[in-house]
Amino acid sequence: MNFVECHEEPIHIPGYIQSFGYLIGIDAKSHFITFFSENIRDLFTIGNKDLLFDKMISDFPESFQSIIESDIYRSLNTYTKRENETYFDKIFIGDIEYHFSVFRNGAHIFLEFEKVVENPNKRISNKYDNFYIIDNAQEIWDQLLNTLSKIVNYDRMMIYKFMTDGSGKVIAEKRDKNTQSYLGLHYPETDIPKQARALYMKKRKRIFSNVYSENIPIISKTKQNIDLTFAASRGMSPIHGQYIKNSGASSSFSVSIIIDDKLWGLVTCQNSTPKHIDLEDRVQAGIFTALASNAYSSFKTKKELEYRIDLNEKSAYLKTEFLKQNSLFDSLVQSRKEIKELAEADGLAIISDENIVKTGTTPSHAVIEKIVSWAYKNTDKSIYINRSFLKEYGNDLDVDKDSAGIIIYFIDRTKNEMLIWFRREFDEHIDWAGNPEKKIDVFVQNGEEKHMVSPRKSFEVFKENIKGNSRRWSSRNIGGVQAIRDVILETSHKQYNTIKQLNDQLKKVNEELDSFSYTISHDLGTPLTVMKLNAQMLLANLDTSEKEKNKLKSIIEEIDNMAEMMHDVLQLSRAKHSEIELESLQTIQTIEKISENAKITFDSPKSEIIIKECPEVLADKTMMHQVFLNIINNAVKYSSHQDQPVIEIEGKENEEMIIYRISDNGIGIPEEEKHKMFKIFNRMDNAKKFKGNGIGLSIVHRIMKRIGGNVDYESNKEGTSFILKFKKP
After folding, report:
1. 440: exposed, middle or buried (C-beta count within 10 Å: 0-12, 13-18, 19+)?
2. What is the pLDDT of residues 260-296, one digit of tens each?
């Protein structure tokens, strides 16, 4: 007596078919009959069945007339060029219509027959179109079951999803009200062992019409078992037959759910009484299942894309934050919260040499040191993942429920740099469809007694409580860890040192520039004032020629220009360093006052300034005034030489910002000089006939950045529009 594991049972060569089918096998080259099902004589009028061997179908024109006259048989070589590709036809045998299927597998061509069964209850609507507009995974599977129920209409219809270990879970269900629910129940891997899962990848629709009917033996000339992998009527194994009987069903129908070329799950249907599903209906069920599978795959792809976009944004933010710090360790410590959340962990430990920094729920320093020591001795992977760390190493390492699951990322083994993410123990309860423990029984197959795992006799809910595990680390959690790894690699120590040196140099230069700004604005202010006063006294008191007076006026004017430049440089420095206080501010009075003063300052009374809606903004009061002062003054100044200067000021609100547009019909900005617009001391060639020093727009640019806004512009020959974007109050 032999012992056979579930996965060793040769279910593809049972030696028989189900009673609803009829089968003839012919040699792929000679077309001689090599095997047939014993019930073939019930379908065709033949004498001694042994006389069929080594003969062609066409050698029996009276018996097989309907086959010979069929389109498929006439073009048999054409239809069987590709292996394992099934072609369908319908033929009449006597007064009864049959489905006629043909396919080639290996050295044989299979001719398979089954009676056409009308389905008066079949109702198909256009609901299948909805698969691609459903934006919810569960609704896709519910919709599939609703659609298939109009075709199959078994007592219980389920979506069965395979887990990574080969076990399965019912994730969707449609059932008769008198049928027990299996929704949410788990099934062990042995219920659908690996060779059965492999067959579901090859033959994607499987029916057992009546598990209580007698099997029909296959008669073969060579006495060898024929591979019936692709035969629709392939007989079931005795183990599976008993399994279905124990579940209280008499019929079973399954359709494979294939996603990314892998067996993702099954549509599994059971009926309490024997019920055959017509071949066309089975094919249609397969088509609907493929549509739903594709819709689910598209849905998952869309969600994965959204996740990747979000992950890239978080990675970019981390890179920016990392580069602000002096060392990798400082970067990790400052961003520890974000690093923990990217892996959806409960806790994080940052290890660098002898330093340990923790955040969230973590074990003690002593336990972390034990885990670090264990990791160096037991794994050479750069990333180690385990959801059962507590169960496997709890006693050895004094690990408690706060670190049931861990991920370890070795940054640099030589420097003892690593990250460890922790997850708490997850109180896991699994509801099994019956006790999943294996039991051994004796079965007879082809006259031979074999010890095999016995199918469960009860499907009553069996609860299993599992300790020592955390929640599973998902692919997204692992992707988050990998993203952190990439950020660390991209901001390596060499980059840190280079950027730090550049930042130190830039800081020193900025400090010198700021010192220079205050020096020229304050220390030189008094001498300039004295010079101006003396020049004014000379102009008032000296009795000299008009030519000499003009020289004195020129000196005074240049002193004013220098004073204005020093004032603007000081404002630019203050825009960088001064403290800001953001508040909701009204703008209308500020804009009106600046506008009136600008017309006087630039001697342009003819300027028409149109002020439209002016919504409140979030800004610093002093800085807001400085921004509008510079932009409105420029608009008035650079349009003042027009015959009819027009300036228009309008603020609008969108979902995120308050946007002000200040437009003029002035000189415009040459396209070739636009890249220099906000640089300090920069003046356009066409603006040099106007008074100015090229600092105002630099002040505006710096202020808008500081208050969380932005400044931009549009310009052409008709004028310029400056666009100010403020935060909403």
Report:
1. exposed
2. 999 999 999 999 999 999 999 999 999 999 999 999 9
CA 102/CA 109 separation, integer angstroms: 7
Residues in the chain: 729
Q: Is 97 exposed, middle or buried (0-12, 13-18, 19+ CB in 10 A)?
A: middle
Mutual angle of helices 546-577 and 696-706, in 10-degree steps: 10
Count Cβ atoms within 10 A of the Cβ of residue 458 and give its class: 0-12 exposed, 13-18 middle, 19 or more buried.
Answer: exposed
Going by pLDDT thresholds of 50, 70 and 90, the confidence category of residue 1 is: very low
First to last CA, the chain: 84
Q: What is the pLDDT of residues 137-172, one digit of tens each?
A: 999 999 999 999 989 989 999 999 999 889 999 999
Whether the predicted pLDDT of 3 surpasses 50: no
Which DSSP state fits 175?
E
**440, 454 in Cβ contact below 8 A?**
yes
Structure-block tokens of residue 114: 């089954």
Q: Which residues contact 281 (CB under 8 A, 6 or more apart)?
A: 119, 122, 151, 152
Q: Which tokens belong to 159?
A: 């979506």
Compute the average pLDDT of residues 393-403: 91
Separation of alpha carbons 168 and 166, rounded Å: 7
Two structure tokens written together for 110: 């299979």
Predicted pLDDT at 253: 97
pLDDT confidence of 79, banded at 50, 70, 90?
A: confident
How far is the C-alpha of 247 from the C-alpha of 458, rounded, in Å? 7
